[in-house]
Amino acid sequence: MAPDVILLVLAGVLAIACIGLVLFASGSADQAAVVRAESGGLRGTFRGSILRPLDQAFGRTALGGRLTTQLVEANLRSLMPLEYAVIGLTLVMGAFFIAHTQVTVLWALLMALGVAAGLGLLLTFLQQRQYRLFLQQLPELARILANSTNAGLSIRTALQIAAAEMSDPAGRELAMLNHELAIGTPIDVALERMESRIPGRDLTVLIGTLVISQRSGGSLITALRGMAQALEDRKETSREVRTLVTQSSYTGYMVVGLGVGLVLLFNLISPGLLYDLTSSLLGQITLVFTGITYAIGLILINRISKVNI
Questions:
Q1: What average pLDDT does the segment 158-166 reach?
Q2: Residue 200's domain spans which residues?
Q3: Best-predicted range by mean pLDDT among 177-186, 201-210, 270-279?
Q4: For a FRET experiment, which of 113, 181, 216, 309 has its CA 20 to 30 Å from that of 266?
């Protein structure tokens, strides 16, 4: 088998492994699995007896602490920070050694750094996805709170009902909020902490309404019902706008992918093309110029297609 074909197969295996890792972590991060794992479900296993102590030590470092927070906010709780770091390091090193066989050392290093940046962007994307899912559940949350308070229940009881009835990520965040309330945290402080964990203008308005009602009183039921309808209308409008601008965004990504794919195809047809391209001054200038223009194009597409509602 030709060396180029072998390298392409290895690159495909690495990509599939990365995708499989994300799917596995996302699929196994449900609430019941988390409870079992934290209650001793890992005892006697390799992860529980060996990896868990190492992960706890890694979590005390600056990188480990930040990675722990990102994994929790990305809903990858079943994946230890140490595991993500080791798998990420393996992917980066694999990308470097595979690229080094086709391009010069400098460009292989840049590609490896790109893989590392991609792993960080993956976590950021999953975090933003959880934020969007939570904000999409706000109309339902406002309706549950309005109905509960209309039945004569207190805000704390209404929040407990919402945590029990709503799915993740809203159910998970409300359960965390109720846990803070159970240990004596004032309700306005706990709500403000939840607001700091999940950025969003809609959530800020909802929490502001609840805090003002707790401090000053007022017609909370009417405010919550009106807010639920307004949030539902806003959600539908956002969905329609997102549908309209999706085509332009994905067109830009397809253009970039097509350019990279053509270069790899030419290298497959004419082995050594990438090495010649990255080892000559003219080739390096061409690659840098192409990369800059692609980046500018993607930024402009995102700016044009980004609509604030």
A1: 90
A2: 136-239
A3: 177-186
A4: 113
